[in-house]
Amino acid sequence: MDISQLNEKIQQESKFVDLLTMEMRKVIVGQKDMLDRMLIGLLANGHILLEGVPGLAKTLAIKSLAMAIKARYSRIQFTPDLLPADLIGTMIYSQKTEEFLVRKGPIFANFILADEINRAPAKVQSALLEAMQERQVTIGDQTYVLQEPFLVLATENPLEQEGTYPLPEAQVDRFMMKIIIGYPSRDEEKLILRQNMQQEFPVTKAVVEPADIMNARNVVREVYLDEKIEDYITDIVFATRFPDSYKLGKLTPLISYGGSPRASINLALAAKAYAFIRQRGYVIPEDVRAVCHDVLRHRIGLTYEAEAENITSEDIINDILNHVEVP
């Protein structure tokens, strides 16, 4: 299939994206980047971590996305006393049948909102980790495959430290993207105010079938990724590991570890999904740059020296993008 045919196919297959976005915009004011990144995660089959102060519509955005698709949705409020059984389910003894029966937990849904994920202890995190990575859950001696599409959208509050557990690097790496949400503009704030003063708050309607999402995921994989773009993605990720090789020696004392191969895979998939949303059948360098911060910001470890100098992973990614040659 040549590029023109691929473009036509993608323009046809991506029509539902505009429909989905319009439906979510009935409820969410502004936050265009957040909505785009959530759609990228949905289309690229990658979990999303949303970080922002309370009240920025993180939970509302995830709920609106789930409601706009005819799929099952579960909200799990993470707390320090949460147990793995509260998440995945447990075995219950039935006196009537004199045998153990499986009671499935809220993880058995298509969309999982893991609210304030950093409040849960290690045992709960490990139970969620299996579901995220393997798309399956083990209860007793039985393994249950989770129904597709399966997407974990987690929220994290950066302000509070009491009663929170830092997410292990292994689990953070399972999230395709970490999205930082900022405050709305002054005009957007006025719209939010008006919307909440109305008699009835807008509600999203189901406009997309899960089958449409599964089909779109296959089409996203078909988006053309040139070898030069592959080299560009590889160079960006390698620059986080070996800055000296890219004339970025000043970053060496600031980085404790760089992106894993999963970073390269997710950067390529996110770029393809971004091109799909833009109704394009091929990836350009701007697509890679657009999603680079969201894919890499949680995959670069900072040294004490970087923290002492108030240097963030954002600053390091900016330096890398400014120095790595664009094809």
Query: Structural class, from helix and strand content?
Result: alpha/beta
On the 0-100 scale, what is the average pLDDT? 84
| Number of helices in the DSSP assignment | 14
Strand elements, count:
11
- Any idea what the CATH architecture of the largest domain is? 3-Layer(aba) Sandwich
Count of discrete domains: 2
Beta-strand content bin: 15-25%
Write the layout of secondary structure elements.
Layout: H1 3-13, H2 15-25, H3 32-44, E1 47-51, H4 58-68, E2 73-77, H5 84-88, E3 89-94, E4 99-104, E5 111-115, H6 122-134, E6 136-139, E7 142-145, E8 151-156, H7 169-172, E9 175-180, H8 186-197, H9 210-222, H10 227-241, E10 255-257, H11 261-277, H12 285-296, E11 301-302, H13 304-308, H14 313-323
Helix pairs in contact: 3-11, 9-11, 10-11, 11-12, 12-14
Summary keywords:
single chain; 327 residues; alpha/beta; Rossmann fold; Helicase, Ruva Protein, domain 3; 2 domains; five-stranded parallel β-sheet; two-stranded antiparallel ribbon; 14 helices; 11 strands; 47% helix; 16% strand; globular
Description:
There is one protein chain. By secondary structure, the chain is an alpha/beta fold. The chain folds into 2 domains: 3-215, P-loop containing nucleotide triphosphate hydrolases (Rossmann fold, 3-Layer(aba) Sandwich); 223-323, Helicase, Ruva Protein, domain 3 (Orthogonal Bundle). It has helices at residues 3-13, 15-25, 32-44, 58-68, 84-88, 122-134, 169-172, 186-197, 210-222, 227-241, 261-277, 285-296, 304-308, 313-323, and strands spanning 47-51, 73-77, 89-94, 99-104, 111-115, 136-139, 142-145, 151-156, 175-180, 255-257, 301-302. The strands form 4 sheets. Strands 2-5-8-1-9 form a 5-stranded parallel beta sheet. A two-stranded antiparallel sheet has the order 3-4. Strands 6-7 form a two-stranded antiparallel ribbon. β6 (136-139) and β7 (142-145) form a beta hairpin.
